[in-house]
Amino acid sequence: MAWIYKHPKSGRWFLGWRVGKKVFNRSTGTIDRKDAEKQLATCEIMVTTNREGKLTEAVYRSLTGQKIERVPLKIAVSDYLDRIKPRVSKGTLDGYRSALKGLLEAVHASDAAPSLADITKTVVEKYLATVRAGRSATTTNNRVKYLGAFFRDANERHHTGVPTDGLEYYHETPAEADAPDRRPFTQDELQTIFTIAPRGFWKFAIMCSYYTGLRLGRIATLQWQHVNFATQLLSVKDVKPQKKKRLEIPIHATLYAVLKSLRDAAGEVKPTDYLWPEQAQTYRDRGAQPFSLEFNERVLVPAGLAKAYERHGERRQFNEVTFHSIRHNAVTGMKEIGTPEMVVRAIIGHTSQAVSAVYSHATSEMARVHMDKLPSPFKKAKVKK
Predict the structure, then answer these.
(1) Which residue has the higher pLDDT, 36 or 48?
(2) CB-facing half-sphere around the CA of 284: CA atoms within 13 A
(3) pLDDT confidence of 358, banded at 50, 70, 90?
(4) Is the dihedral of CA 83, 87, 92, 93 positive or negative?
(5) Per-residue pLDDT averaged across 149-175, rounded?
(6) Boundaries of every domain in the chain
(7) What's the predicted TM-score (pTM) here?
(8) Which of 52, 63, 88, 141 is the most buried (most CB within 10 A)?
(9) Domain 73-177 has CATH 1.10.150.130
(10) pLDDT digits (tens, 9 = 90+) for 189-200
(11) Angle at 272 between CA 267 and CA 274, to 5 degrees
């Protein structure tokens, strides 16, 4: 869609057009409406051919008399990732890298070719079809979003079109829709994984998640300033960027004993020191993926709750239980002992603006009463580094 409008001060006609959800405009450089309408007609053709994935260099040159800028795709991708790195989370950056790396491999990109202008809607669709053959609909749709953001940015800079515009999202197959859902561990399974888990971080992480509901990334990056031994509270913010809600979590007696033991063994520390420095650095550098893989290989597989993941390009096998399942155990356990919904939400951090006022009534004292009622599936729990 394109249009023209007259600037109230200069009297010149301006072109406006929309690409996806983005609106662009520029001056036609003329006060003559007929000349402006000729440019409008050209603009409408380019917008339409771009939407249909047919804006080739030949079409662009025939309409404008100019050449499309030949920017190598590989260089554009590298530049884009460098620019967004300070603005997005590690997990989001990994998503962009994976999607764009896959595209580069699919088109056999070198430092010189192909260019941005060579990537048509058909090229992108073929790439996504190969992704869908080995990945879920959700994963493929995430790549559609990542690619769309990249090409919209590239179009604003180089006017090479947006080949992802108009792409349809993928739907689950009946088999995927009927696949089992994630579930909590049973109490027997919790005891098993805790027994099998390597000493140190993994035993601590399992116990901490069960008694707090914290996510793995938050556990890996806990600092001593988050642990208040006097009030027996953990005061942390959720790792999810969109939340950033501070959680005040009563420390269960079993977990308190472990934290006290770790603190005594740590010696002299600063408030900003991590409980688990090596794991914290890994999470900051590489995100959650290495932790998920390690938990699968060192805990779930030996426990008979998962199969080893073989990297041969095939779709990763769905598992009913993951580390995140322990968070479900925390919620389920609290509800089973009659913990009010608002207290569960205040501890776990499931919130929204609409209910934030309700959550504020769940005091730490109320939360402690119910937290202390949680049964301990961990026999003779000792965590040593």
Answers:
(1) 36
(2) 9
(3) very low
(4) positive
(5) 84
(6) 2-51, 73-177, 187-310+321-371
(7) 0.57
(8) 141
(9) yes
(10) 999 999 999 999
(11) 65
Helix axes 57-64, 33-51, angle to 10 degrees: 180
Output the six-digit token pair for 90: 């590690």
Q: Looking up tokens 């003779």, which residue turns up?
A: 380
Establish how many alpha carbons lie within 13 A of residue 251's alpha carbon, considering only the half-sphere containing its beta carbon.
19
CATH, range 187-310+321-371: 1.10.443.10
Q: Residues 99, 100, 104, CA angle at the centre, nearest 5°?
A: 125
* Fold agreement (73-177, 187-310+321-371): no
What is the identity of the amino acid at 345?
R
Amino acid of residue 119: I
